[in-house]
Amino acid sequence: MSKFTVSRRGLLSAGVAASAASLASSVFAQEKKSSLVPDKWDLTTEVLVVGSGGAGLAAAVSAAQAGAKVTVIEKLAFIGGNTMISSGYFNAVDPERQKKQGIEDSIEKHIEQTLAGGDGRADPELVRILCSNALGSLHWLESMGLKFRPDVMQVYGALWPRSHLATEPKGTGFIRVLSTKAKELGVDIMTNTKLVKIIREQFDEGRALGVMAERQGKPFYIRATKGIVLAAGGFAANPRLRAIHDPRMLTLTTTNNQACSTGEVMLAANEAGAYLMGLDYIQCNPGCPPGHTSRQALHLDVSRYVFVDKRGKRFVAEDARRDVLRDAILNLPEKFGYAIVDNDGFNSYNQVVRDDAMKGLKTGDAFKADTLDDLAKQMGVPADQLKKTIADYNAMVDQKKDPDFGKAERNLSHKIEKAPYWAALSSMAVHHTMGGVRIDKETRVLDRQGKVIEGLYAAGEVTGGIHGTNRLGGNAIADIFTFGRIAGNSAANQKKKPNFDLLK
Questions:
Q1: Which CATH number is associated with domain 13-226+237-281+434-494?
Q2: Which whole-number Å values give the CA distances from 214 to 23, 69, 195, 237, in the listed order?
Q3: Which of 97, 200, 223, 322 is catalytic?
Q4: 371 Rama class: left (phi>0) / alpha (psi -120 to 50) / beta
Q5: Are the folds of 13-226+237-281+434-494 and 284-430 the same?
Q6: 284-430: what CATH class?
Q7: How is the chain split into domains, by residue range?
Q8: Which of 196, 173, 186, 252 is nearest to 481 (CA)?
Q9: Is 84 a residue whose pLDDT tops 90?
Q10: Is the overall model pTM greater than 0.85, yes or no?
């Protein structure tokens, strides 16, 4: 069997037009066993990080703290990646914060829910590392000056109230503290620099030596003497690649994904011999419907909102798994619903969410009314049915029981009863791609035979195997910082075992 015959989840990236020609030329190059090593490198560093989002900056800071000379390349003109525009919810078992709210939790429960939420398809060892070290990663960020709200909540699709939120809007705080620390440590960040190829000693054999990048329209060769960390995110913004693995994803918009999230770094890793897994595990969240202009996020706190369809009826438990919520909306005839909150629920959200809702009033993506009758009229749903749905839901809150869809008792805590009432269009948009490069517990990239590619590491959404079929809400932020830290430390020290003491 040819080395280029891989499983569906190992990706024959030839399904993407941009990668088809690349793979064809790669096969030819592989047959010749030619070396891509340049005669001269334009830049030499010790640790090279590809991507400047949360995972990349965490890796850069961690590697620099370990004493390495670090260079980061970013294909955009600015840093931050998807982390900058994320909702920013960070899952971590935190006895101190959770106890104050009467929340019972444990690392074992977090592990169990992460594995079960991903249908047992995640790597148990990676899940244990994630859940056991998430709080240490949160404290690491706090040590750099990042502040979190004192309350803990259950974000959309999280399955348990262990989601922490920074006081700064979205992911801006994460990027601010990490970029400041990176600068203090002498990390060199090169924007407008796009990875093209990963260079190994032979075409797809031997140690990863460096990369060929594109800078100012010209090839730029960077040598990494200790290691390369791939942290460039997933492929949520690549409709054709999404559609290969789930045809429903072809025409959907995206949520908080930069337009650059097209997966070319993942494909370059595959071309260099890395094994790709789980590419058909694609997550959606409520987003901007096709033809509309603004995304609304009134759904974030599962205890604050209800979902209704065009007929004014609830159709799903609001605290369900994200794949369940995805399919519930995509199975509606209209393929969209509405998230409804009352005034208390609206005011519980941060200023960014409220500002987006105010903009949505002008674009027809959000609605506000002093009565449910008026709200129903604006939404175009039957008023009598909407009022009945809200009345029934409020009774469920009183009874702490949802006989219709089984919403958890702990999330039946807030009625929809205080005017003004708010509603927002909720269509499905691509949110996160759970598949990518296979790694081991040291974040070392593995090839198609399960062997380590020396000198090559990966962290964040570019990897696969951590979330299984369905990522819990709030686990991505915990993932990028925990494994980003490990990747940076592993690359800097080239250790056979990760230094988990640094995560405590």
A1: 3.50.50.60
A2: 19, 21, 6, 21
A3: 322
A4: beta
A5: no
A6: alpha beta
A7: 13-226+237-281+434-494, 284-430
A8: 173
A9: yes
A10: yes
